[in-house]
Amino acid sequence: MTLKTKCTLCNAKVTLYQEFNQKKYYKCSNCLSILLDPIHYVTREKEKARYQEHNNDVDDPGYQRFVFPIVNEIKQTFNQGHKGLDFGAGTGPVITKLLRDEGFSIELYDPFFWNNDEVLKFKYNYIICCEVIEHFHFPQKEFTLLRSLLKPGGILYCMTEIYSEDIDFINWHYKNDPTHVFFYHKDALKWIQEHFRFSEVKKKNRLIEFHF
Asked: For 44-211, CATH number?
């Protein structure tokens, strides 16, 4: 499997951008995102093993501080009567733990650790993707799903590092995780907003909000 000539998000043409550590990265001509060639994707077994290495202790104060921006935004916007989905929750769903402790109603989904397709049959007031979207092998497909799961007036909360031209890509730590395969440019956020008909997109440091 090779990347060929299409962006996995917007289907535009891509060109070779960088080669590093025997891996090829491509740049989209439209949304300006950076894509790892799929030939370098790790196997599903190695991907799961990598996630299991993460130190995601839900009681760790540092981990709780890291996710505070999402938790705080949800608490300011929604209440215990709203329904949430922690999509790509991983081995330590700390956001869900913190919000459930305050009476919020949140379901968990993760293809490796919380693989319950039943929760994908409902719609939600808010969806959380914390350090998730950079792992999407097929981001257009995944955003199609996420958009379909949101109720009108809902918000999709994504946390990731955004690529920009002033980043020294070769020395950028974020690309070094072998499970990180898609690096979004700010133009990609705008494309997602327009293509999936979100009313607006807000970026607050690493937190991105797509409003339905």
From this structure: 3.40.50.150
